[in-house]
Design brief:
The complex is a heterodimer of chains A (334) and B (508).
Chain A (H helix, E strand, L loop, with lengths): L21 H9 L1 H16 L6 H26 L7 H17 L5 H24 L5 H20 L9 H8 L1 E2 L3 E2 L1 H18 L1 H11 L1 H6 L4 H27 L11 H10 L11 H20 L4 H26 L1
Antiparallel strand pairs in A: 1-2
Helix pairs in contact in A: 2-13, 3-8, 3-11, 3-12, 3-13, 4-5, 4-6, 4-11, 5-11, 7-11, 8-9, 9-11, 12-13, 13-14
Chain B lengths: L1 H6 L6 E12 L2 E12 L3 E6 L5 H8 L7 E6 L2 E3 L4 H7 L1 E4 L11 H5 L6 E2 L2 E2 L1 H12 L15 H14 L4 E5 L7 H16 L3 E6 L2 H7 L2 E6 L2 E6 L7 H9 L20 E8 L2 E8 L4 E6 L5 H8 L7 E6 L5 E2 L4 H7 L1 E4 L3 H4 L7 H6 L7 E2 L2 E2 L1 H14 L16 H14 L4 E5 L7 H16 L3 E5 L3 H7 L2 E6 L2 E7 L5 H13 L1
Parallel strand pairs in B: 3-10, 3-11, 6-9, 9-10, 15-22, 15-23, 18-21, 21-22
Antiparallel strand pairs in B: 1-2, 1-4, 4-5, 7-8, 11-12, 13-14, 13-16, 16-17, 19-20, 23-24
The chains are: A mainly alpha (334), B alpha/beta (508).
């Protein structure tokens, strides 16, 4: 113990000047996703004025739709402090089921599509059961489910791309009204509103936040924690199913690895938008911000014709900055 | 220690001193111009109600928070750039209520956590064990015991020793007696006196006058963020004087007017309750009766309370209200609430509050179906409910919209109590309802429970706090080995009788 007595602190520079402009900085950091979004829009626009065209805006809206749907799906398990990595794979697998119910079983396209979404919903429900009743760790359980579904999609398609989708099936992804405004984003907007209402104004939504915030206390407060988690995973599965239908309809094709490329972006979007991986924190507006930010980065990098070898790296770097700023915000401003 | 003092003489009689320390959070001044000095080798008590600024002061002197203004001196030298590392380097260590112990490694390894003796990057296990054995000699802790198996007092000792071994000269103990039994507390105090004799200085934070009077040499009292008073000689103070310093007014201790209930028809009948090792054939509560469950930890009082609420892993038995027929005990808390049973946990952080929600949202959490229609929350109805209980509990906060984790412990407990009362229970079970809250708020809580009982609600209070049992209940059930060993009521309830019983059981 003797050496410590001499170690009395030496006078160094004062640590005070963190107070000034704290509230302004706090505001900026709180809205960092939106500020970063506007900044990127301006930057991309300066590089190439094509970025500001109506056509490009329409393009961004369409691109944001599928990512937005899957991003919302991923956000739900995060809010209850779990994670579902299988959602993008679920998206691809369920859309293939829907398409094959049409082409191989001869079901009407609408019914076939609903079969696809029902399968996606069931997979979400099953994940929820495994995590609550069997107490499996969601990270690993859904990782294995992701691999299963990716493999199943490959097996179903035998490596081929499904393209014989009926016109009615692909209508939603192709239709546009006056001046080329696409219809598809309307689905995303409706879902956004519905999810916002669900989370803000319903008993279920409040329970989701409570369970994510403190599952033990929620149980003691009379919330059926397992049930809430299962419902959350089920809704997430449903949203993945809808996203699968939209993606197939938009691309007019289902590849043998449909959806897989969305995995990281779908997880990044809600987290960038302020959804906590520890549960109980985050809102729908934030998720929208995250989705738009990622979409603008993707589209913008393509438009200013960054060589494709660099797109991944630069995109990743931009996401890194957004997450780092968010971490700083949480660290200093809660 | 003495050799050192000789080597490094210091004119300052205070090993640790703060001058004009203030801390501002936004518009609120949490700590106002506090100056105090801690003498070398003393146990210095720090007393104050919840929200008086104790936690803020502790945060500042342990380096967890940066003061808005003021200076901290150690050995007469000002410390600038205060942070935890700097303070620990200077020898000031904070030992919190929640011991930082890793359960699945041995006591010896816990002691050396982060300061492993090493040779070329490899841990020198032999030296580690030797050092640890030397440190732990005479403490009754086996160096090779898994930390997870240690009892509460051993864990606290381990943390204090770790702080000392890391070079701690001033050790801040933040409510070290919370959740300790009377025997454990005596053991801890003996341990502290031994360390004091070796020259360690303690800052001892407590809610309890008797603890301050028993162990401390000097003490300082905080009230409303400022220094309310203090003494260099605790021996000259009485408990009443101390209370008055803490509260700034004479404190009226709550005392329930006891009722005789024997003749009335029971409002709650429990039959054949079994869970784990507890077994209770029959237990009845009258309407408006408050029954205290007490006993040593593990004797079954807490376990029975949790079983009635559906929180035990397995439970069997039946319950009936009034003239209703016997029904199986609830399987989950939700079922319990639906039957009219409410429960307040003893651990409000782990098992009470949802920290990131507002006060209002925490209050309405168990009553969401009441304030909703077809699954949609009705904001007016929810606000009405939250406001009512916010006011009824006398919660000190800006309003129900404030985030709950900004509240002091006592006010957080009131939020939890508001939540369970908002469910309008017929049977209310409270597990250590006043643990870790200050004496003023404690009276408030006991009063609220008393008023509720007057409306006919039957209440069970699980408590190891003899004083609380004596003041608040009509009947006491003493638990042993999972069963009710003895019952007494009315004037027979006295702290002497309770202590006597506890002693007999402890002796065999």
């Amino acid at each position: 113990m003797s050496q410590t007595t001499t170690a009395v602190a030496k006078p160094t520079t004062a640590a005070a000047p963190r107070q000034g402009g704290k509230s302004t900085l706090g505001w900026v950091l709180h809205n960092v996703v939106w500020i970063w979004l506007i900044a990127l829009v301006v930057i991309f626009g300066l590089f190439n004025e094509f970025f500001f065209t109506t056509f490009n805006l329409q393009n961004i809206m369409v691109q944001a739709t599928v990512l937005g749907m899957i991003g919302l799906a991923v956000a739900l398990p995060l809010l209850v402090a779990e994670i579902d990595l299988s959602l993008p794979a679920n998206l691809g697998f369920s859309s293939a089921i829907g398409a094959m119910a049409y082409s191989d079983l001869g079901l009407p396209w609408l019914l076939a599509m609903l079969v696809g979404i029902a399968v996606a919903t069931l997979i979400g429900f099953f994940n929820g059961l495994c995590i609550t009743k069997l107490k499996m760790v969601s990270l690993i359980q859904t990782l294995s489910m992701m691999i299963i579904l990716q493999g199943a999609l490959l097996a179903l398609t035998q490596g081929r791309t499904i393209t014989n989708l009926p016109d009615a099936y692909v209508w939603i992804g192709q239709a546009a009204i006056g001046g080329g405004w696409p219809i598809m984003p309307v689905v995303f907007i409706i879902t956004l509103v519905a999810m916002a209402v669900l989370l803000r104004n319903t008993v279920l939504g409040r329970s989701i936040y409570a369970v994510g915030g403190n599952p033990v206390a929620s149980n003691s407060a009379g919330i059926r924690v397992d049930r809430i988690k299962i419902i959350t995973f089920t809704i997430a599965g449903f949203l993945a199913g809808v996203a699968g239908f939209l993606l197939a309809s938009w691309q007019m094709a289902i590849t043998s690895n449909q959806g897989s490329s969305y995995l990281l972006y779908a997880i990044a979007a809600p987290i960038i938008g302020g959804v906590s991986v520890f549960g109980g924190r985050g809102n729908i507006i934030g998720v929208l911000g995250g989705v738009l930010l990622l979409t603008v980065i993707q589209v913008g990098l393509a438009i200013i014709s960054v060589p494709s070898f660099y797109v991944g790296m630069i995109g990743g770097f931009m996401i890194f900055i957004a997450v780092a700023i968010d971490a700083i915000r949480v660290r200093y401003f809660g | 220690m003495t050799a050192e003092s000789a080597r490094q003489p210091s004119e300052d009689p205070f090993i640790f001193r703060v001058e004009n320390l203030s801390k501002r959070y936004g518009s609120t001044l949490a700590l106002r111009d506090v100056s105090l000095g801690i003498r070398r080798g003393m146990i210095h008590g720090l007393l104050g109600e919840n929200g008086a600024g104790k936690s803020t002061l502790v945060g500042l002197i342990s380096g967890q928070r940066v003061p808005s203004s003021g200076t901290i001196y150690l050995d007469g030298r000002p410390i600038e750039n205060v942070d935890v590392k700097e303070m620990e380097k200077a020898g000031v260590f904070l030992v919190t209520q929640e011991p930082m112990i890793i359960d699945h490694v041995t006591a010896a390894e816990n002691l050396m956590l982060g300061i492993w003796p090493s040779k070329g990057g490899f841990v020198n296990w032999r030296k580690l064990r030797a050092d640890a054995s030397r440190m732990l000699a005479g403490t009754g802790i086996d160096p090779q015991a898994m930390a997870g198996g240690l009892d509460a007092v051993a864990r606290r000792k381990l943390n204090i020793l770790r702080a000392m071994f890391s070079g701690g000269k001033v050790i801040i103990l933040d409510e070290p007696t919370a959740a300790l039994t009377v025997e454990d507390r005596a053991q801890l105090f003996t341990f502290m006196r031994e360390l004091k004799a070796q020259g360690v200085t303690f800052i001892f934070i407590s809610h309890y006058n008797d603890e301050i009077l028993e162990i401390c040499d000097a003490c300082s009292v905080l009230r409303d963020g400022a220094l309310a008073g203090g003494t260099e000689d605790v021996g000259s103070l009485t408990s009443e004087q101390l209370s008055e310093l803490v509260l700034g007014r004479g404190l009226v201790l709550f005392q329930r007017e006891r009722h005789a209930f024997a003749a009335e028809e029971p409002a709650v009948r429990l039959r054949d309750v079994a869970s784990g090792k507890i077994g209770v054939k029959a237990f009845d509560l009258r309407p408006g009766e408050i029954v205290g469950f007490t006993g040593l930890p593990g004797a079954g009082a807490k376990e029975l309370a949790r079983a009635i609420f559906g929180l035990a892993p397995t439970q069997s038995g039946t319950i009936a209200f009034g003239t209703e027929t016997q029904r199986p005990l609830p399987a989950t808390p939700r079922d319990a609430f639906d039957m009219g049973i409410a429960f307040l946990s003893d651990d409000r952080h782990r098992d009470g509050l949802v920290a990131q929600m507002t006060i209002g949202e925490n209050i309405s959490l168990s009553s969401l179906s009441v304030v909703a229609r077809a699954g949609f929350l009705r904001p007016e109805a929810e606000k009405l409910l939250s406001d009512r209980y916010f006011r009824a509990m006398g919660i000190k906060a800006a309003g129900p919209a404030a985030v709950v984790n900004t509240l002091s412990g006592g006010n957080q407990q009131k939020v939890c109590l508001g939540r369970v009362l908002a469910t309008k229970p017929r049977l209310l079970i409270l597990d250590e309802p006043t643990r870790g809250i200050d004496i003023g708020v404690k009276q408030d809580v006991l009063r609220i429970i008393d008023e509720l009982a007057r409306t006919g609600v039957s209440v069970i209070i699980v408590s190891t706090d003899t004083d609380e049992i004596v003041r608040a209940v009509d009947r006491v059930c003493v638990f042993e080995d999972g069963a009710i060993r003895e019952e007494f009521s009315g004037e027979a309830i006295s702290s002497e009788r309770l202590r006597q019983g506890a002693k007999e059981r402890a002796d065999g």
